């Protein structure tokens, strides 16, 4: 079809069963353009047209409007000429006019984010010609008013003046409807439409100071440039940022001959899906409108009808419409136009088989002829995603590897947490945005204090930030909202572990604990007010939003089984309690990669003993307090070992600085002083003594165990005795004792010596033994660099990428929330490195650590237990680095299992 030789094409034509492009050219032609080309070549009736490439959009940004138009002018003119010859019409001709549509089309679909203009090429003369040619004045004038409306909005900026304002054209239409006593757009008479055109043009002149452009070529260039501009419009930028699509991609522009769904009762337009995008059910479905154009169906001006009879009957049941009424008033396309329906049904089947995925299509019926305007892989819910992939596999349309690769890992989340009813979300009022720290949906009444979470049956704990003391309240609350903190803040880590919905770092919230109020801009929310959190998007919503229970369908289990068939890298879990361990095991965890023992000390009955230990001034006093803690810890470990019977359990020795355990509030300090029979001053002195300028870099990790060896002794004893007790009951325990935060070999050696001598002493006492490993976390850059030496001593490594990220970037985990969002917004950082592993920098240390470790111990077992262990791109990186297992919170286990399989499959492609 190309006529211009030796020039890199910027414009690709399609139509009449031919095409310059194909569906593999999405990057250049955008998704819509590539698929239009492919459909045309497949012989599906698409209106002829052409695509201006995404590269031109980028050139436009660099070179400006004038230069770019010069660059593509000849090709566009040639392509318009092609359409003219296919259609037998002429652009701008007043007797036999060609009108075109101008649509955006990025390489990925961004529904509703960019602009479209229909019926372009219309003016006062063309409308008369069109009316005469079609013998349909109503249609011609309806198309004209639609054109001015769309072109005015998209190209000439005729938008509502403010958020609360009505669209200026809608206002004129509403006015006329009122005057004429009618309700719907299709009730306008020809004279009404003529009046509207006149009034629309006057409104344009009044607002912009310019006449509405009458030259079709001026109109075309105006629309093309407007589509390019819409790539950088607010909506598109927001959507791009949300999905991580780079600005360089640009959008293509698709220009096509108009086909008209508004030519009368033998015409119409609709949207359809080859399968149900909500449930994945294999039923063809969709909606249509008779005598309507493009946007009418989605815009909801008129209530659309169902395409299939089955869909129509299902709809009627919900709408409580009797069958006889349904068949008359709301007939399906299948009943109303059976031949068209059959043809559409054939195309949907052809296209789904061709693309081997669920398709979302748009079509228009022009005077009894069907045209397909678009097809794309349809967006779908997590549940539908899983069902469709597994069904396509069973139907033989895709193979196992393709089924696994068809799953978007993060979308599995939706299957694991209660979700908001999508219908309710449509009308929800979003008041602020935070980090989507832990997915899920929560609706409840605001409480500001953890110990008041019980106050309401459903509460949302709203805090500036949370501390370990808030644990119980966090557990009771339906959701957690914090003004500060990042993705690895305490609230986020704990919430993910609990599978509890959490939004953190919502900077717009101003919380006043004293007054028990929350300010968001001008609005004040009191304790007890209802709010809702969408943990998957970070949206904070006013009032209640209905939720629906997630369905763990059979296909989900099948998918997980299939993942394990291909996954090489193992998936363990981070679990601190038997309950979490059981949940994770049900989700398929193959062991525990991290038990944070400190969480056990925070529980009500333990914190006292822990505080006594910390406040003790002598080793004897400390040992006495630790003795009290021993049985409690041992019982914890027994519970966890039992839950993980037969699987490895990595238990990390105490990590956080001691100041986290002592009370900071006067009342609690007094209570403690009384209980311990010491003075309040003594308690205060100890708290002051433990205060650190930078606790994250302070007296924590193995530094505690090395300065207070009796803590390591007690913890080792609890682990080993628990394992021996269970061994006697026939439970297979595989403890892996892990030393945190080492930077030097000696730090490890000192801890290892305490662990092994304590274990040996117990073995002697009990005249029994178990196998166990002693390994270390690699979370300090120096440890990664010294990995060869450390591996000579350690049985295993586990990368603590939370601390490794903190220490490699020099960003405090607790404070980074203040500047990271700005860094991301400004493009200084692509994303939050605490959420997505920085493969370039921190990843290098993971690689170096693994390689050096294995240089002295080739079979060294290496895992990762930072939050990145459940993040898809980081999990894939781990596989490619030769890591043996990732460990993540229970609710991320299925995701990690899937990604482990996907990563392995990708290397075979
Ligand atoms: C880490 O640093 O990655 C880690 C798992 O330990 P924590 O988050 O408990 O510091
Ligand atoms: Mg750590």
Automatic annotation (TrEMBL):
<dbReference type="Pfam" id="PF00391">
    <property type="entry name" value="PEP-utilizers"/>
</dbReference>
<dbReference type="InterPro" id="IPR023151">
    <property type="entry name" value="PEP_util_CS"/>
</dbReference>
<dbReference type="GO" id="GO:0050242">
    <property type="term" value="F:pyruvate, phosphate dikinase activity"/>
</dbReference>
<dbReference type="Pfam" id="PF02896">
    <property type="entry name" value="PEP-utilizers_C"/>
</dbReference>
<protein>
    <recommendedName>
        <fullName>Pyruvate, phosphate dikinase</fullName>
        <ecNumber>2.7.9.1</ecNumber>
    </recommendedName>
</protein>
<keyword id="KW-0808">Transferase</keyword>
<keyword id="KW-0479">Metal-binding</keyword>
<feature type="domain" description="PEP-utilising enzyme C-terminal">
    <location>
        <begin position="554"/>
        <end position="903"/>
    </location>
</feature>
<comment type="function">
    <text>Catalyzes the reversible phosphorylation of pyruvate and phosphate.</text>
</comment>
<keyword id="KW-0547">Nucleotide-binding</keyword>
<keyword id="KW-0067">ATP-binding</keyword>
<dbReference type="InterPro" id="IPR010121">
    <property type="entry name" value="Pyruvate_phosphate_dikinase"/>
</dbReference>
<keyword id="KW-0418">Kinase</keyword>
<feature type="domain" description="Pyruvate phosphate dikinase AMP/ATP-binding">
    <location>
        <begin position="27"/>
        <end position="60"/>
    </location>
</feature>
<dbReference type="InterPro" id="IPR000121">
    <property type="entry name" value="PEP_util_C"/>
</dbReference>
<dbReference type="InterPro" id="IPR036637">
    <property type="entry name" value="Phosphohistidine_dom_sf"/>
</dbReference>
<keyword id="KW-0670">Pyruvate</keyword>
<comment type="similarity">
    <text>Belongs to the PEP-utilizing enzyme family.</text>
</comment>
<feature type="domain" description="Pyruvate phosphate dikinase AMP/ATP-binding">
    <location>
        <begin position="71"/>
        <end position="395"/>
    </location>
</feature>
<dbReference type="InterPro" id="IPR015813">
    <property type="entry name" value="Pyrv/PenolPyrv_kinase-like_dom"/>
</dbReference>
<dbReference type="Pfam" id="PF01326">
    <property type="entry name" value="PPDK_N"/>
</dbReference>
<feature type="domain" description="PEP-utilising enzyme mobile">
    <location>
        <begin position="457"/>
        <end position="538"/>
    </location>
</feature>
<keyword id="KW-0460">Magnesium</keyword>
<dbReference type="InterPro" id="IPR002192">
    <property type="entry name" value="PPDK_AMP/ATP-bd"/>
</dbReference>
<dbReference type="InterPro" id="IPR008279">
    <property type="entry name" value="PEP-util_enz_mobile_dom"/>
</dbReference>
<dbReference type="InterPro" id="IPR040442">
    <property type="entry name" value="Pyrv_kinase-like_dom_sf"/>
</dbReference>
<dbReference type="InterPro" id="IPR013815">
    <property type="entry name" value="ATP_grasp_subdomain_1"/>
</dbReference>
<dbReference type="InterPro" id="IPR018274">
    <property type="entry name" value="PEP_util_AS"/>
</dbReference>
């Amino acid at each position: 079809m190309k006529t211009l030789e030796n020039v890199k094409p910027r414009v690709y034509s399609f139509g009449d069963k031919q095409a310059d492009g194909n569906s593999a050219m999405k990057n250049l032609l955008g998704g819509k353009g590539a698929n239009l080309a492919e459909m045309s070549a497949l012989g599906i009736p698409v209106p002829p047209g052409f695509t201006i490439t995404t590269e031109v959009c980028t050139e436009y940004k660099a070179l400006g409007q004038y230069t770019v138009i010069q660059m593509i002018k000849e090709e566009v003119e040639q392509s318009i000429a092609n359409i003219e010859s296919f259609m037998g019409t002429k652009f701008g001709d007043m007797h036999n006019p060609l009108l075109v549509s101008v649509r955006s089309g990025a390489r990925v679909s961004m529904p509703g984010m960019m602009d479209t203009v229909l019926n372009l090429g219309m003016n006062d003369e063309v409308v008369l010609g069109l009316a005469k040619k079609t013998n349909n004045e109503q249609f011609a004038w309806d198309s004209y008013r639609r054109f001015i409306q769309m072109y005015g909005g998209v190209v000439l900026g005729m938008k509502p003046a403010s958020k609360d304002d009505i669209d200026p054209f809608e206002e004129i239409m509403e006015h006329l409807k009122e005057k004429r006593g009618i309700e719907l757009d299709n009730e306008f008479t020809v004279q009404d439409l003529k009046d509207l055109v006149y009034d629309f043009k006057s409104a344009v002149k009044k607002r912009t100071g310019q006449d509405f452009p009458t030259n079709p070529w001026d109109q075309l260039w105006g629309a093309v440039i407007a589509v390019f501009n819409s790539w950088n419009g607010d909506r598109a930028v927001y959507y791009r940022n949300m999905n991580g699509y780079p600005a360089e991609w640009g959008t293509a522009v698709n220009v096509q001959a108009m086909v008209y769904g508004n030519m009368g009762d033998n015409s119409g337009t609709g949207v359809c899906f080859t399968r149900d995008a909500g449930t994945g059910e294999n039923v063809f479905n969709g909606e249509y409108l008779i005598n309507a154009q493009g946007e009418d169906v989605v815009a909801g001006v008129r209530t659309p009808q169902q395409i299939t009879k089955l869909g129509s009957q299902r709809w009627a049941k919900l709408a409580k419409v009797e069958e006889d009424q349904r068949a008359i008033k709301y007939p399906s396309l299948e009943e109303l136009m059976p031949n068209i329906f059959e043809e559409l049904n054939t195309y949907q089947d052809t296209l789904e088989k061709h693309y081997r995925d669920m398709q979302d299509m748009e079509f228009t019926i022009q005077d009894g002829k069907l045209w397909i305007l678009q097809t794309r892989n349809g967006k779908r819910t997590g549940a539908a995603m899983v069902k469709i992939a597994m069904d396509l596999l069973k139907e033989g349309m895709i193979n196992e590897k393709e089924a696994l690769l068809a799953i978007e890992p993060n979308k599995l989340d939706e299957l694991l947490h209660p979700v908001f009813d999508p219908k309710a979300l449509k009308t929800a009022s979003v008041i602020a945005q935070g980090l989507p720290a832990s997915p899920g949906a929560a609706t409840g009444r605001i409480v500001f204090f953890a110990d008041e979470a019980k106050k309401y049956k459903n509460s949302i704990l709203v805090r500036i930030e949370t501390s370990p003391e808030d644990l119980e309240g966090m557990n009771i609350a339906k959701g957690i909202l914090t003004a500060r903190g990042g993705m690895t803040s305490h609230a986020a880590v704990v919430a993910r572990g609990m599978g509890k919905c959490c939004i953190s770092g919502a900077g717009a919230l101003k919380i006043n604990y004293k007054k028990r109020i929350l300010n968001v801009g001008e609005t004040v929310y009191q304790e007890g007010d209802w709010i809702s959190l969408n943990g998957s998007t970070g949206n904070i919503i006013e009032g209640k939003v209905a939720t629906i229970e997630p369905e763990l369908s059979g296909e989900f289990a099948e998918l997980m089984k299939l993942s394990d068939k291909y996954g090489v890298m193992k998936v363990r879990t981070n679990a601190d309690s038997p309950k979490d361990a059981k949940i994770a095991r049900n989700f398929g965890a193959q062991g525990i990669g991290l038990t944070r023992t400190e969480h056990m000390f925070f529980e009500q009955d333990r914190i006292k003993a822990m505080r006594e230990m910390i406040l003790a001034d002598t080793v004897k006093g400390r040992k006495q307090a630790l003795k009290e803690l021993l049985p409690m810890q041992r019982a914890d470990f027994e519970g966890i070992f039992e839950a993980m019977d037969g699987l490895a359990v990595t238990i990390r020795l105490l990590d956080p600085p001691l100041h986290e355990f002592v009370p900071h509030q006067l009342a609690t300090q007094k209570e403690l002083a009384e209980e311990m029979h010491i003075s309040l001053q003594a308690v205060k002195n100890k708290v002051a003594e433990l205060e650190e300028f930078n606790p994250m870099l302070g007296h924590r990790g193995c530094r505690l165990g090395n300065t207070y060896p009796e803590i390591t002794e007690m913890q080792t004893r609890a682990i080993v005795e628990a394992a021996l007790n269970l061994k006697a009951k026939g439970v297979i325990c595989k403890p892996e004792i892990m030393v945190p935060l080492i930077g030097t070999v000696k730090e490890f050696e000192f801890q290892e010596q305490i662990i092994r001598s304590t274990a040996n002493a117990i073995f002697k006492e009990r005249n029994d033994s178990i196998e166990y490993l002693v390994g270390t976390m690699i979370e300090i850059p120096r440890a990664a660099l010294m990995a060869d030496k450390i591996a000579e001593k350690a049985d295993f490594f586990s990368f603590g990428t939370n601390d490794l990220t903190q220490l490699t970037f020099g960003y405090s985990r607790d404070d980074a929330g203040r500047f990271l969002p700005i860094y991301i917004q400004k493009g200084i950082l692509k994303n939050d490195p605490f959420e997505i592993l920085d493969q370039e920098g921190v990843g290098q240390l993971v690689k170096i650590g693994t390689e050096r470790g294995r240089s002295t111990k080739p079979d060294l077992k290496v895992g990762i237990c930072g939050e990145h262990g459940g993040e898809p791109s980081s999990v894939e990186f781990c596989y490619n680095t030769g890591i043996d297992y990732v460990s993540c919170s229970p609710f991320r286990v299925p995701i990690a299992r899937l990604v482990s399989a996907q990563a392995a499959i990708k290397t075979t492609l």
